[in-house]
Amino acid sequence: MFAVTIIAANYIPYARALEASFLAHNPGSRFFTLLIDVDERPTAEDFDSRSESTVLTPRDLNLDHDEFLRMALMYDVTELATALKPWALEALLELGADVAVYLDPDIYVYAPLSIVEAAARDHGIALTPHGLSPMDRDGMEPSEAVIMQSGIYNLGFIAVNSASREFLSWWQERLLRDSISAPEQMLFTDQRWIDLVPGYWNVEILKHPGLNVAYWNVDKRSLSEENGEVLVNGEPLHFYHFSGFDPKKPWLLSKHAVRNPRVRLSENPILTRLCADYAEELEKSVVVGTAGEYAYGRLDTGVGITATLRRLYRDKILDEDSSGKRLLPVPFSGHDADLIRSLTSPLESQPLLNEFMLSAWKRRPDVMSAYPNPLTNDARDFRDWCHSSGVSEGILEAWQLAAPVQTRVARNRAVATDAVGINLHGYLTAELGMGELARLVMKATEVAGIPCSPTVNTRHLNRSEADVSVGSNAVVYPIDVLVINADQTLAWAAENLSGGSDRLRVGVWAWEVEEFPDEFTEAFEVLDEVWAISTFSQRAIQRKTNKPVFTIPLPQKVGERESVKPFDFSTVGLDADPYFLVMFDYLSVIDRKNPFAAIEAFKSAFSRDESVRLVIKTINGHQKFIDRERLLHAIGDDPRIHLIEDYLTSDQVTELVCGAVAFVSLHRSEGYGLTCADAMGLRVPVIATAYSGNMDFMNASNSLLVPYSLVPVDASVQVYPPTTVWAEADVSVAAKHMQKLFFDPSSGRSIGDQGYESISRTDTLTQSADFISARIASLMMKRTSPTQVRTGVLRRLARLLPGPVKARLKRLKRLKSAL
Q1: C-alpha to C-alpha distances, 710 to 345, 493, 778, 808, nearest whole angstrom
Q2: pLDDT at residue 816 above 50?
Q3: Rounded to whole angstroms, what are the CA distances from 342 to 160, 198, 300, 664?
Q4: Rounded CA gap, 85 and 101, in Å?
């Protein structure tokens, strides 16, 4: 029996781990690795002690090399690897195999495959179905519909004998062009074709529960252990398919089922151990220096190959197949510049567009509906879409476009009144940070005496039950204040502005890292100025615009800790031991909030026999399954760490904060740090990273600051620019702070008192109101002539200011000095 797997160079550890496990349980067999992105066979040194004879390259296949290069451009790495299976199996038969077995590189063998060998030898082709029993119709992932889209049989495994060459030739003919993942065309790489095979040839469908166990079927297969051997439904586990498992994310069984998976590692200890052992095997199989960039990820010109380019190229190859004429140069052969030139040139039938743009149109039904006639009446509007949404959504890249077009932003001509006032737009009822910010701005505006016409934005995923009274928005004032972040500002403008408008617009923005993204800078076009929530955010935003960016002082909530009743832990099934508190929303980016550092610090600070807890209050874990599994993995089996995952009332949150030994925020970056400020306003000591927005109100005398080192933002955190940095808190210092507060409660009371005093003195509601009054006055002056400035705007503002005459005159004087 010969076995083969197919990989690009970055998957060498997987292939080596598979080879070792296969040969350990199948002595006398041979194992081969087909490396798809090398032109010459690697030396033995490249594979440590492996023999050169076990490594194949595309030139070892019975496949014309020019055709292989065409496949390498039209297919992505997964499509290409799967497309080469029938040629790889054929190569093994040519080398003398009586049975040739294909195994995906992310498979690990735990027992002999003699049943596989016998089935293929006796029946010609051996397959395993994705499932052996019906799936529950419960909305979990994957579903039977997903399996039907993918194919009845999982082609991570297939075995054939020497009499199966007719089948292999048939499969090769189809995969030469049609190994794409396109469910709308009933194609899923190599797999869907095999649904036809049992009707064409003799096939043995293997139903042993220990074969091809994977995330899609393990919920129906009971795992157990006996004498160190893993059993599946009481039978030996022969091989497990770790499809989608990433050793760097050991909390997640598969990246292919993340929303609502059938199997969660946090609930399956045997499977968790298998994954951990497999990750260790992969680590041992790493060969230094072999995993470079995928050879067919860029053209010879250095241009990165996108999905749009691959599909466009395939379309052109299919056209050439039909005509019988080869017009395009062979890719990766020194002529890629000519290839790109032919695809980016303007169309003869419509010079505003090119092949890339038309290809994107064909692959987006929604765009086809919006622009049904791209070559005639809709050409200009479709071109605009390509240059804006087409690029921002990653469908097209700038180099793939025709001549650029100026972005047009619609503006409203109508204004209901010229009187001083604002139109406040924000998530006023949402239980999220930006919702709280909008409510604070509305309250400060009320204190300033400035009329406010509010509009509730409902485009968010959080609960909308905040206790707030939203008044009338019947009057349209001259100034729009958008408490909506940069990424949503243009969407707001598209829905709310039409034609031109002389209204002025302010964006109240939060931003959490040092670099403001280039893709958000277009939002500046619809604003006259920005109010940032901290000096940290202000600096990041100001670097990317010439428009004024100010820091709005945020009013802090203060209260007396002693007057708050204790949190009722019985409502969440916990006892009332002393506890440290961490709070975060999964939708606020778990890597930034970084509860993992708090968990590490807590575990380091206290032994398990000490009566102290770490309480982690979260929301929206159901919307971020992967992140929740990461958190559970970090917690592990530590009984002292507890999750509270339900929404609590505002009073309950206050009770929870007040009862804590300390509030802990070992964040990597914060736009402001509102939860830290809230805790300080309740006399609760705060342990926090000494970095970012919270440093506007925190210092070494009013809180316990944790030093940090700046590190690059991980590329997997796609919310933030990959070139920026953030803080990695020193958990050893955080652990010492925890110990200090727990073993010396008086020190915690002292820090809490100092935090309360500083919060009470700074950033009050009056300061926020004064800032808003000054900025509104300044903006109103832009709409008046110079002679009207002092006699008009300031008088109107003076009449609006609340309180007795002397107090109004005093505030008016502050306004004049601010202007």
Answers
A1: 45, 36, 38, 47
A2: yes
A3: 43, 43, 15, 58
A4: 10
- CA dist., res. 101 & res. 592, Å (int): 45
Name the DSSP letter for residue 213.
B
Residue 801 has pLDDT above 80, yes or no: no
Instruction: Provide the token pair at 594.
Output: 């970084």
225 three-class SS: strand
Residue type at 649 in one-letter notation: T
What's at 470, amino acid-wise?
V
Q: What angle do CA 278, 280, 286 make, to 5 degrees?
A: 105
Distance CA 443, CA 432 (A): 17
In angstroms, the Cα distances linking 387 to 287, 355, 402 are 43, 14, 9
Segment 615-643 shows an average pLDDT of 91
Q: At 153, list the tokens.
A: 């049989």
SS3 108: strand
Looking at this protein, which amino acid is placed at residue 207? K
Pair of tokens at residue 646: 């339900």
Distance (Å) of CA 756 to CA 655, 686, 726, 778: 16, 11, 28, 33
Mean pLDDT of all residues belonging to the chain: 87
Segment of 46-50, 156-160, 800-804 carrying the highest mean pLDDT? 156-160
- Region 303-324: mean pLDDT is 91
Structure tokens at 188: 């899923």
Nearest-angstrom CA–CA distance, 692 and 696? 8
Mean pLDDT over residues 549-553, rounded?
Answer: 94
Q: How far, in Å, CA of 433 to CA of 467, rounded?
A: 14
Strands 529-532 and 504-509: parallel
What is the per-residue pLDDT across 26-55, written as a single tens digit (0 to 9) for each?
Answer: 999 999 999 999 876 665 455 554 444 589
Q: Compute the chain's Rg from CA coordinates.
A: 32
| 448 in Cβ contact with 772 (< 8 Å) | yes
DSSP 305: P
Cβ partners under 8 Å of residue 2, min gap 6: 29, 30, 31, 32, 92, 95, 96, 97, 99, 100, 101
Q: Do the Cβ atoms of 242 and 265 come closer than 8 Å?
A: no
pLDDT at 409: 34
